[in-house]
Every structure is written in C-alpha cells, then in structure tokens.
Amino acid sequence: xxxxxxxxxxxxxxxxDPEATRLDPFDPDTAPPAPLALFTTWFAEAVAAGQQEPHTxxxxxxxxxxxxxxxxxMLHGADPDGWSFATHSTSRKGRALAARPYAALAFYWPxxxxxxxxxxxxxxxxxxxSQADLHARSTGALAAALTGRQSEELASVAELxxxxxxxxxxxxANPGEPSPTWTLYRLRPETVEFFQGDPDRRxxxxxxxxxxxxxxxxxxxx
Length: 222
What we know:
The protein contains 6 helices and 10 strands; from the N terminus they run H-H-E-E-E-E-H-E-E-H-H-H-E-E-E-E. It is α+β, with helices and mostly antiparallel strands and about 220 residues long. Strands 1, 2, 3, 4, 5, 6, 7, 8, 9 and 10 form a 10-stranded antiparallel sheet that branches. This is Pyridoxal 5'-phosphate synthase.
C-alpha cells in the first residue's frame, strides 16, 4: 500500500476550485422573511447544480454525560414543523436525543460554496407517522431498519450478513412490516444560518432567529 504524507496532501488541495465550484453573489436583503423558503430554493439550486447527495447532512447531538457526537444522516423532509430525519430510538443518537432533545444540523454543498446550519429542540413523531415514513422508502431501507441493533457491538461481518439477508427476505415478503423502534424526529429550528462563500473570502452569513413575534435576521462576520 502506498504511503502518503498527510500534510503534503492537505497543502496540495484547493477549496472551491473554479472548475468545480460556482460562487454566486448572495444579497441578504433579498432573502425571504422565513428560512424555510430560502432553504427550499438553495436545496433546489444545489440539485440543479449537480451536487451529489444534497439531502445528506451532519447531525450533532450531546449524550447524557454532555459528550458531543456527530454523524451523517439523510434529510427526510423540511416543512413548518421542522427539519426531519429518522433512526432507531435505541441507537446511540436515539438515546442521546432521549436524554437531551436538542440537536444541530449542517448541510454542505461545495458545488455552490454554500452551507446551511440549523439548531433547535427535537421532538419525535407519533409511531404511526414514523412507520408511514419508513414504508414510503425503499425495500432496502426497510431491510436495514428490520436488521435492527443499530450501534450495538457486532461480533463479525458474517453475523451482519446473516441478519441482513434475513431482514431482506422479511422486507420483500411483507413490505408493510413494522419496525417498532424506528422513529421519525423533527428538529424545530431556533436558528438557521445560510453561508455563501465568496472568492475574495468576504463570505456572507445570514442567520434567522426564532422569536415570539416570528423570525428576525442578522448578518454574522465570516
């Protein structure tokens, strides 16, 4: 296996190469009064620009002992009730959310030099809605959910293969089979930040803040 010098590799990399990234100007004065509309526009523009997997996002939580954790998950939707994602309630992130129901999300779309950050409390949807969300997805998604035991220690890859094959058989035979611990979560935003990169490093950061009177907006130094 070839050996690589990490520092040399890092120095060789370029951020936002003009051949791969389009940095459009962003005038925050033209932004809509609420963040969901701007998120929807930016998401659609990321898709149109060819961003790979724009619906993936970082999810940060804190466990019962105050230790942070982060992982990549899939966005299941965004509407006036919040930004939604799903996992097993018994998983590591599910247990963290049960202990401290507050989280942060981060989207990164390098093809446009954009980030979106969302923070707020998290609530779980009713079981019926969680199961409906699961069964609206692919057979593979159901098979993965039926495999279960997420975040538990695994003895071997062979054990995973056996459990997965059995779960695939169940998912194909019964597409409506429930996964009792599968839970749809909604993050209800308190703040939503939109970051637009700039070639001269004058990045624009617009933060929406939830108040009792609606949304306020403020610019942040880059």
